[in-house]
TrEMBL record:
It holds the Pfam family Methyltransf_25. Residues 2-166 form the N-acetyltransferase domain. It comes from Kribbella jiaozuonensis. PROSITE patterns: GNAT. PANTHER family: L-AMINO ACID N-ACETYLTRANSFERASE. This is GNAT family N-acetyltransferase.
């Protein structure tokens, strides 16, 4: 098991050693590299970092042995990963991924982005950051600037406060009732885990039915709203990314409702979400996903948008990037006056067949697919589906 501890002056030489060893193993040292000159500058910089109150310079240990270096800065605006190096002997064991996931959870808890720089000649690191959901936001010399935000800014306190609409929309009894009924049936007397539990729209009534419910939630603002309805004892929640964070224990049911898997904006993240569900399930457990069917048949050639809803006081406009399978939903709310309020949410849409392949990659098979929670038959004209995936029993 790895651990992270504060670096001391006695670690300065090791920090230079592990950084140099990791870089050399990647074949990224220039032919004219002057090791003595580099080492002198790096060790001096490390001493300054140890004394810098704005920077946390740490040593990564595995089984009591020093194996890596971690440097993180924290500001009111962001968590900044300034550098992480692991000795080649301990790479590809998930240590780097686990550390970055912890930093993502920290950033999510504070409601700020996680930022970093990556050299363009370091494709291994770039692939890792792409897989973990980072996106390029700029360039700085020979480095790309990358940022991870997910729901840390989208699902903020203002959005969380007005998210619940008791008795209407997705909180209407004819929507919520069948959802809870079906999930209680699928839990089959066992524990349930909700990915992206939000304000507890589903979890609270499901727990009231006697199903033990836990959750994962990225947005602390949404979690704060849940806590006005149920405390940590009633519904335990772990803050973090649903594609990576672990919750203690084993479950018979994991569920992800109301299109939320599409909030993961890469195929890699969506596959990771399936795999994380599998890690939490007991043999034979179920993973349930509620998701809309992409509406590309309604998209005329050359037209980048569709009108999804046009009601008094509300219009939904979806704009598509068919190359990346991305869609941005633009929600316009307005009253009698001339002013309107706009909320945007980005998504990566998934075809049902692609969803089934993701499930297979994680060890699931499709058990059932219906058009809604009341088990209406799924057809070519169904706008959405509820899909139940089953993990192997052995």
């Amino acid at each position: 098991m790895y651990r992270i501890r504060e670096a001391s002056l006695a670690d300065v030489e090791f920090l230079a050693d592990v950084t140099l060893t990791a870089t050399r193993a990647q074949g990224r040292l220039a032919p004219d590299f002057d090791e003595a000159d580099w080492r002198g500058g790096f060790e001096e910089w490390s001493r300054e970092s140890i004394d810098d109150p704005a920077t946390d310079l740490s040593v990564i240990e595995l089984d009591g042995q020093r194996v890596g270096r971690l440097r993180v800065s924290r500001t009111p605006e962001a968590v900044e990963l300034n550098g992480i190096q692991l000795h080649p002997d301990v790479q590809n064991r998930g240590i780097g991924t686990a550390i970055i996931t912890e930093l993502q959870a920290e950033a999510a808890g504070r409601g700020v982005p996680l930022e970093l720089h990556v050299e363009r000649d370091n494709p291994d690191a770039r692939r890792l950051y792409d897989r973990l959901g980072f996106h390029k936001t700029g360039e700085d010399g020979a480095e790309d600037v990358m940022q991870w935000t997910h729901g840390t800014q989208l699902w903020n306190a203002e959005v969380a406060k007005r998210y619940d609409t008791p008795g209407t929309g997705m909180f209407a009894a004819d929507v919520l009732g069948p959802t809870v009924d079906r999930l209680a049936e699928l839990a089959d007397g066992g524990r349930a885990l909700e990915f992206a539990i939000g304000t507890g729209r589903v979890a609270v009534p499901l727990a009231a039915r006697g199903v033990p419910v836990s959750g994962i939630e990225l947005s602390t603002a949404m979690l704060a709203e849940l806590r006005t309805k149920a405390d940590e004892t009633a519904i335990p929640v772990v803050v973090g990314d649903m594609s990576a964070v672990r919750v203690p224990g084993e479950f018979s049911l994991v569920y992800l409702v109301y299109n939320t898997i599409s909030n993961l904006l890469t195929q890699e993240e969506q596959v990771a979400c399936f795999r994380n569900a599998a890690r939490h399930l007991s043999p034979g457990g179920r993973f349930v996903i509620e998701l809309w069917v992409p509406e590309l048949r309604r998209l005329p050639p050359g037209t980048p948008a569709t009108v999804g809803i046009a009601d008094p006081g509300y219009i939904l406009l979806d704009t598509y990037d068919v190359l990346k399978q991305h869609v941005v939903s633009h929600h316009f709310h307005f009253g009698e006056g001339t002013q309107a309020e706009l909320f945007r949410s980005p998504h990566r849409y998934i075809w049902p067949a692609e969803l089934d392949l993701m499930a297979q990659l994680a060890g699931f098979t499709l058990e059932s697919r219906h058009a809604d929670w009341s088990s209406t038959a799924f057809t070519a004209d169904s706008p959405s589906h509820v899909s139940v995936f089953r993990l192997a029993t052995t």
